[in-house]
Amino acid sequence: MAYVIGIGVLRKLVLKVNKNALLLGCSRNVAAWNKDWKPGPYPKTPEERAAAAKKYGLIPEDYVPYPDDGDGYGDYPKLPPISGEARDPYYAWDFPVLKKNYGEPLHVISDMLGEDRYNINAKPRFSTATQLMVFLGVMTVLASLFLLAENFSYVHPVMPKQYPGPGVKHYTFEPAE
Amino acid sequence: MGDGQVDASFEEKRAVAERAKLRAALKKEYIKQLTDPHRHASGEGGYLFDSGVQRFMSMRATMYDHFRPTLKGGIMWFSFVLFPIIGYGYFLNKKRREFDEKCRRGEIAYKDRLFKFI
Q: Where are the transmembrane segments (chain B) (predicted)?
C-alpha cells in the first residue's frame, strides 16, 4: 500500500521534472517488421557480399549465399547444418536448452535441426543405398516365391452349390442296377 | 585462439580469431542485456530480441519474394505434383469406368466377382 502510494508520488515527481518520462509502468511494444529483417536480394558484387556477411554476423570467407536459381533465399547465408545433438554439450551456450548463442544466424532448416527433432549429423549404421538394396532384395525374393507358387496353389476341392430351383434337376434317386 | 596450432595455416588461424572476435562481441552484448537492471522495469516482455531468430522468421515469411519460375522448377512441379495427381485420377477413373460398363453389359461372370472370398 505504501509502495503503491510511493510509486504514485514518484511518478508525479518524475513527470514534473521530465514530461517525456511516461515509460514508468508502460510496456514497450518491440515489434519487428518483416520488411526490415527479411533477406535482401542475391548479392552480386564483392561489396554487397561483404555487407551481407557483416549483416548476418559472419566473416566474409564464411559467407556463402544459396545459388540464385529461382528456389533461393536471397542473400541468406548457407550455413553448415549442425543439429542440436551434434553441438557441444559442455560449451557455455547463451541459451543452453537450444544450444544456441545470442545473435547466431540460424540455418534455413534450423526448426528441423533441434535436439528433439532430426539429427542431420548422425552417421547411420547402414547407408541409404544399402537400406534400399536390402529392402528391394528381400521384397523381390518374397514376391517371386509368391508368384511362382500361384500355379501350384491348393484350393478346397468343392463343386458349385446345388441349389434347388424350377426345372433344375441335380440328381435322381434311381435304384442301382 | 588458434595460436598453438601447428598444422593450421595462417589464413585458418586468422579466420578462427576473427570468428572468435565476433562471437565475443555478441556474448558481451548478451551478458550486458541479461544483467541490465532496468530491463525489468521497461516491461519489454521477458525475452530478449534476437536478430538471428528474427532474420530466420522473416526469411521464412518472405520466401516467395525470391521465387522465380524456371525450367527445372517447372519440371519438378510437373513430375512430382501435377502429373501424379492428374495421372492417378485419370487412370483410376478409366479403370472404374471400364469395370462399370462391363458390369452393365453383363460381361463379368459370377465366379469372377470381386471380393469372392469375403
A: 74-92
